[in-house]
Design goal:
5 helices
Length: about 120
């Protein structure tokens, strides 16, 4: 599997840091931010192969952030993450091209197989 440049976005710092550490363990370069605003700004500076985006965040929520990111990079591969029942927000994200949804808590192996597996060399 090739090394990917991955963005992790979650206002739950422990959750974001844990996911980032797991992805780094598997050999990927990971940038971690804790708000939707930071995610959009990171995308303005750097192109990411893959993004894991929390749905429910203060300020710009995950779907609003995702829509802004798609303006910067229309083919951005973004997976939404949620621990809540946010059907309307998830439907909006999927309708605008989100790659999928992971329901928290999820096994890192699930994320690696589903999201990163398509990048296998």
């Amino acid at each position: 599997m090739k090394e990917l440049n991955i963005l992790v976005v979650d206002d739950d710092r422990d959750g974001a840091d844990g996911l980032s550490e797991a992805l780094e363990f598997y050999g990927h370069h990971v940038t971690t931010v804790y708000s939707g605003e930071e995610a959009v700004e990171a995308f303005r500076r750097t192109g990411f192969d893959l993004t894991f985006m929390d749905v429910m965040m203060l300020g710009l929520n995950g779907v609003e952030s995702f829509l802004e990111i798609r303006k910067i990079k229309p083919d951005a591969k973004v997976y939404m993450m949620t621990g809540y029942s946010a059907r309307d927000l998830l439907d909006e994200a999927i309708g605008h091209g989100a790659a999928g949804v992971f329901h928290k808590p999820f096994a890192i192996e699930e994320a690696l197989e589903s999201a990163i597996g398509s990048y296998a060399c």
